[in-house]
Amino acid sequence: MKIGGLLLLTALLCRGSQAKLSVHSSESNTIALRDSHVVLPCSFLVTPGSIDLRRLTVSWYQYGFLVAKFANGEVTARQDASLFEPNLSQGNASLLLKSIVKRDEGQYECEVTHAGEKGSASLALTIQVPPEVLLLPESVHLLEEHHMTCSAKNFYPKEIRFIWTRSGKAVSPLNTAEPSMNPDGTYNSESVYSFTPTSRDDLTCEVEHQALKETARRYARYMGLTVTEVTLMVFAVFTFLLILLAVFWFFSVSLSPLVPLKLVQGDIGSVKCILTGWRLGLVTQQWFINDQEVKVDNQQRDCEDVTSVPLNSPSDYRLKTDPPKKGFFRTETPVTLQFLPTRADHEGAVCRCRVRHRLTRRSITHYNEYPLDLNSQTSRTSLRTRTPT
Hints:
The protein is mainly beta and 389 residues long. It contains 3 helices and 34 strands. The protein is rod-shaped, with a radius of gyration of 54 Å.
């Protein structure tokens, strides 16, 4: 009896001194992005005492299928999985998964056995895939109707949100499709907004998804001109043309003051002026003595020609055109009215010349302010320019 009691006491003491094993995971759900590396945390503790690798077994399972295992001092694992073998003696039984894909998502179990003691911890791995966001067409023409498509491709999980804003204000899309599943388990979706842009107001498509660190924004780019810009351009062109026409009109023809060169009775006298302008072939001349027009045989004759034209008048008037001096934009042509002055017709008379451009309708008239004086070799009269409206 004494021997039996002693054996029982020894067994109870040994059982009370056996080391205890505890296994736990710091996370119940781990979230990671596709194609990234992720560590599934698992740690264990043996109390009292130390960890004996010879008596340690660590196994990882996904839905009951073995992923990685440490036993008898060796590690066996899938190609994309590994254990932190050097840290097992410190109680680190975490699992490393490399370049995770959709099939790696799911429920995992970390099972640890040490010296006959067994413990486990479970956790879930959720894989998120950020969407590829595009806004098509990339650029739109102003004043034309467009259907803008904001697409999100290859995302996971399924929940996604599209937000359209125009000039900072929310607008309603024409249609937003339900997400459709791809063969790899990801989803595609799109939202369509229809509008006719008349200005360069900001049009933005915003996409919100769990896998995005921040909201994805895509902006519409505009091509062409707005109504205001077209109006301003037309107005600018019209104004420029008006200014150009005004310049052409103003410089189309001008006439210098009339200068009497020689006025002696019985000798050939003359009154000279300088005709200036462009396209002088379109300029007609009219000469007057005391408001009586001196009829010219050919009033439409090119004023750029060098010629002497007989005038159909009893006083035998002749019109002489000297060689022109051509400039960059305008031409100068001296014009002289020749006649035989008589006291009866010219003493105290006023001589006038009127020129008119047939294209621009600009008309200029010059005359001598004081009557012609036949007593001097050269008229000493002062001259004045008059331009009728």
